Every structure is written in structure tokens, then in C-alpha cells.
Predict the 3D structure of the following.
Amino acid sequence: MKFRFEVVVTLKEGLLDPQGKAILDALPTLGWNGVSEVRVGKHIELVLESDDEATARAEVEEMARRFLANPVIEEFRILPGHGAEP
Amino acid sequence: MKPRVGVVTFPGSLDDRDALRAVAVMGGQPVPVWHGDAGIADADAIILPGGFSYGDYLRTGAIARFAPVMTAVREFAEAGGPVLGICNGFQVLCEAGMLPGALIRNRSLSFVCRWVHMRAEGDGGEVLEVPIKHGQGQFVASPDDLAAIEEQGTVAFRYCAPDGSLDERFNPNGSAHGIAGLRNRAGNVLGLMPHPEHAVDPDLGPTGGHHVFQWLLTAAGQRVPA
């Protein structure tokens, strides 16, 4: 079966996110004054073959830990699964 | 015999030829090494050059560390062989866990391309004029790692004013503690964002790169059988 996962990678809390800051600084110039925080990250979608969703998720977690995110500067979360792909 | 210095070319490397030429200018034997090679061609030292390896997709240096040649580079470093990572090469060394920390987008968000001064730490404090050209050169590390780096004295170079004083105004990318270059604990792996390979020929400008290549060639020379 095929399973689709979405992984979101963001810079760690407390680390300056220059892209987020650039967006935050630009928003008031467009009239949005109420925004206090913007964080920019990466959105990675993967489809993988596996016997079941739990095994597939464990694999995605391992990919995220070892490759998709750099633990020195980033953290990641895996969004809830979509179930088996048709 | 001249020490053999291998320069790795990854897809997207830009400064490999300048690095090869700098090795020759400085008295070494330049040896091209291909990213797909299993070995490092009996090199006595290795340079990971600047550029945008594998398009710097995902993160700078993130994919280069899986290149076949990197297994041999890692084994060479673990055996005490001198390894120099310049710019993208520094980013690769951090991604590979061969140096602590990571390099993220410049604090200014702008690509910077100009000459800067850096101070050689723990080494008489020589001030070197070298060029930088990077968009992601801001060195960061966890507070624990930064404390360890300072305690172990492994900072090799810090950005500084022309007179050698440390001044945040002369930090071109927002690097933590003004760190421009860093060694591993054993001292045989050195990574830096500035480009010593562009600063070795007096006909072309300042020669702040001599310091770095002298270190590399001296370390490499000690590995050449007498």
C-alpha cells in the first residue's frame, strides 16, 4: 500500500528566522499591524510503499531525524496521515 | 616530494579550480577528486571547495554529505588527515557532523560579496584580508555547543576590524561570536566561510589566504613519507 505524509520543518524556537522576520517587517506596510510572529519553514510531501501506516510513519520519522531536518537548527513535525493512497 | 592535496568536485562546486590552482601556487601538488569516487587518490590533505553542491537543495551541504567520496573523506579525517572546508565545504562539514553547529541565512538576508578581515585565533592573532561571497554564512550552534567551542578554543578565525579588534559592525553575516572559521577538537578539520583560495596570488590582491594554505600544506607534508 502507498501512504502519503507531510513533514513540516521549521527553525528551532529561539533561533532567529531571517525570512520570517522579513515577512513580519513587511506586513505592517500592507496594513496588517496585529501580527506578532511569523515563522517560515519547509513543507515536504512524501509517498512511500509500506505494509501499514504505522511502519510507514516510523520510516518517515527516521528520514526526518536523519536527513530532512538538521537537529542543530531545525525541528520537524509529521502531520496526521492521510490513510492508504488509492 | 610535494604534498598531494585532493580537491573534491561535487555537482555544483564552483571554486574547485581556484582551490586546485591555489594549492599549486602555494607549493603543493593539486589532485582533482570526483564526488563519485570511492577513494581520495592517496591525497595527503583534502579540500571541500565552495559552490552550491547539489544545488544546495534541502539545506546547504545536506546532500553532498551523502556523496560516495565522503565516506573516504570521513575516514581520512578520523585518521588525523587534514581536511579544509571552504564556504560550501564548511557547510558540508557541519552537515556531516564533522564540525559542530550549522550555517544559516545571513542575518541581513542579503548575499554578501566583499573583502573582509578575520583574525587568526590562538595563533598570534594575525589579521588576514580575505573575500567572502555567501548567502548562508551565519554560523549558529546550541548554547552548549558554543560554550564547548569557546572552552576548547577551537575557533580558528573571527571576523574583525582592520586593526584586529572584535567589533560586531565588522561581522558580515551575524555569525555567533563572530566565528568565521572553526576547527574540530583534534584540530585536523578546519571549516571557514571566507575564501582563502581567492587570496593567494599577490598579482590579484591581498594574500590573506596564505595562512590557511600554509597550515594545510604543513599538516599534509607531515604525512608524506620521508
Q: What stands out?
A: The domain at 4-221 of chain B is CATH 3.40.50.880 (Rossmann fold). The mean pLDDT of chain B is 95.
